[in-house]
Design brief:
Elements (H helix, E strand, L loop, with lengths): L1 E6 L3 H12 L4 E7 L2 H11 L3 E4 L8 H10 L5 E6 L4 H9 L4 E4 L4 H12 L4 E2 L1 H6 L10 H11 L4 H8 L3 H14 L5 H11 L3
Parallel strand pairs: 1-2, 1-3, 3-4, 4-5, 5-6
Helix pairs in contact: 2-3, 7-9, 7-10, 8-9, 9-10
Organism: Rugamonas rivuli
GO molecular function: DNA binding
Keywords: DNA-binding, Phosphoprotein
C-alpha cells in the first residue's frame, strides 16, 4: 500500500480527493490537513510515502511545506495538485524538490497513476505546464522579498510585517523597495500583482 497525506484548505476538495483515492486498491489516505503546519506535523508523525498538497494554504504554503520536508530529510515525496497553471510556481516547486505537479482538473485516474509514478521514484508533471515552464521569465525575487511582498499584498503595513517576521521596519521597507525595483513596478500593490500573476509568490 502507498500511504498518502492530503493537505488542502477547501474542505469539499479535501473530501473529494480523499474519496477518489480511497477507491484505489493500492492507495491508503492516512491523514488529512487543512493547512501547511498541520500537514508538516502529520508527515513528521506518520512518515507517509506521498504528500499531496495545494500551493496556496494558510500558515504555510505547499512550496514552503515541500522545502521544510526536504530540509528535515523526511522520506515523504511531495506532489502539488493546484488550480495555478503558472510556470513560476512549477519552477519553484521543482527547486523545492517536488516530484509531481498536476492541475485539479486532471482526471482521477491521472492523479492515481501520477502517485504511483512518484512513489516508484519518477516524476509526474502536467505536460502543458512542463512545456510552458521554460518559456517564462526567471523569478528575480529572493525568499525574503517574496515573503514581505506576500504580506504586503494581504494589506499589511511595513510595521505589521516587521513585527510578524521579526525584522526592523527599515529592513522590511528595503526588501519591499528591492522587490518593487526588480519587478519594475510603481508600488507594492502593483509589485504584488505582477509577482502573483507570474507564480513567484
Amino acid at each position: 500500500m502507498i500511504s498518502v497525506v492530503i493537505a488542502e484548505d477547501q474542505a469539499l476538495v479535501l473530501g473529494a480527493l480523499a474519496a477518489l483515492l480511497g477507491l484505489e486498491g493500492d492507495l491508503d489516505v492516512v491523514g488529512r490537513a487543512s493547512n501547511g503546519q498541520e500537514a508538516l506535523a502529520l508527515c513528521r508523525a506518520l512518515r507517509p510515502d506521498i504528500l499531496l498538497t495545494d500551493i496556496e494554504m494558510p500558515l504555510m504554503t505547499g512550496l514552503e511545506l515541500a522545502a521544510a520536508l526536504a530540509g528535515e530529510s523526511l522520506p515523504t515525496r511531495v506532489m502539488i495538485v493546484t488550480t495555478f497553471a503558472r510556470s513560476g510556481y512549477l519552477r519553484r516547486a521543482l527547486g523545492a524538490g517536488v516530484r509531481g505537479y498536476l492541475l485539479k482538473d486532471a482526471p482521477a485516474e491521472t492523479l492515481a497513476a501520477a502517485i504511483r509514478t512518484v512513489h516508484a521514484g519518477g516524476r509526474a508533471i502536467a505536460p502543458e505546464l512542463a512545456l510552458e515552464s521554460w518559456s517564462g521569465r526567471e523569478d528575480p525575487l529572493n525568499e525574503r522579498e517574496r515573503q514581505v511582498l506576500r504580506l504586503a499584498g494581504e494589506g499589511r503595513s511595513s510595521g505589521e510585517i516587521a513585527r510578524q517576521i521579526h525584522l526592523s521596519e527599515g529592513t522590511v521597507r528595503n526588501y519591499l523597495s528591492e522587490a518593487i525595483s526588480k519587478l519594475d513596478a510603481g508600488n507594492r500593490v502593483e509589485a504584488f500583482r505582477l509577482a502573483r500573476d507570474a507564480g513567484w509568490l
